[in-house]
Design brief:
The chain is α/β, with parallel strands linked by helices. About 45% of the residues lie in helices and about 20% in strands. Helix 3 packs across helix 4 and helix 5 packs across helix 6. The relative contact order is 0.12.
């Protein structure tokens, strides 16, 4: 049992996260999610969790660690923890360079390869999909550009995340002005219903995407995610250390079909992480191909 009485510090402004307790909490989060908080980010962890301690009526971070590790409700609390520590910044049509690469070049390349192999289904995985804007964007691109040209083509889009709160939002398919800020007007008019500042996706888009809870470092569940043509996993690896990155990227590689593509964030690279992919240069962006 972790109970460092000598380090239990609480002042009138609320509980304080000691260095020792921070390390225990950080290591717990890392072991469960692969997300790594360096010492310089201690203040972020303290700030994000302070309100949760208030809700639980806990006076000390040590009590919270004990709850996470030993309490009968630890699984439920771990879900709350993931919802608190994960960052969910996204919007429709957010990464225009990747969208263009997918729509104008790579999707058709893969479709033609699939047709040669008698496969009429394009399978896409949006890993760490947050509240669903990315997979729904891909669904609209399919309806607008791919389905008219390839009417026999089916599509399967899966959005996954470790944050159950944003997954619930994704399933509802209801968004505010901020989420749709980069969405072209023709898509807004064709695929959304708007009322009182709420933009609701139409059923023809929603039915193309299913959502699942998946922890990217859960190797058992990752092994079930197979036979994808595209994987979008942007701005996720930056929160992992090198060991976790190697594991996750290796599993993503295994999840792709031959000839499939992985997209990651602009600030992310696979240098020193994986040599299994072929780096493909496309105007304004890059993709990683499984040959």
């Amino acid at each position: 049992m972790f109970e460092p009485v000598q380090d239990r510090i609480r002042v009138d402004s609320g509980p304080k996260l000691t260095d020792e307790t921070f390390i225990v909490l950080r290591d717990f989060i890392y072991s469960k999610t692969g997300i790594y908080f360096p010492v310089k980010k201690k203040y972020l962890l303290e700030g994000r969790l302070s309100k949760r301690l208030q809700v639980l009526k806990l006076g000390y971070f040590e009590d919270y660690v004990h709850l996470l590790k030993y309490d009968q409700q630890k699984e439920n609390e771990f879900e709350f923890l993931c919802n608190i520590v994960t960052i969910n910044e996204t919007s429709f049509f957010r990464n225009d360079a990747q969208i263009d690469a997918f729509q104008k070049k790579l999707a058709e390349e893969v479709i033609k390869t699939n047709k040669a192999c008698n496969n009429r289904t394009l399978r896409i995985w949006s890993a760490a999909c947050s509240s669903g804007e990315e997979p729904y964007t891909l669904a609209m691109l399919y309806l607008e550009h791919l389905k008219p040209k390839y009417p026999e083509l089916n599509i399967e889009i899966v959005g996954t995340d470790i944050n159950t709160a944003v997954l619930d939002m994704a399933c509802k398919g209801e968004y505010n002005q901020y989420s749709i800020r980069s969405t072209p007007n023709n898509y807004l008019n064709k695929y959304f219903d708007q009322s009182n500042g709420v933009y609701r996706l139409r059923q023809q888009v929603k039915e193309l995407v299913r959502f699942e809870y998946i922890n990217l470092i859960d190797r058992v569940k990752m092994r079930r995610m197979m036979h994808f043509d595209f994987i979008f996993c942007a701005n996720v690896l930056i929160y992992f250390d090198e060991k976790a990155k190697i594991q996750v990227v290796g599993d993503l590689f295994n999840s792709l079909n031959r000839g499939g593509y992985l997209f990651i964030g602009f600030s992310e690279m696979l240098h020193r992480i994986s040599t299994a992919f072929k780096l493909v240069s496309i105007p304004r962006t890059t993709a990683y191909k499984k040959e």
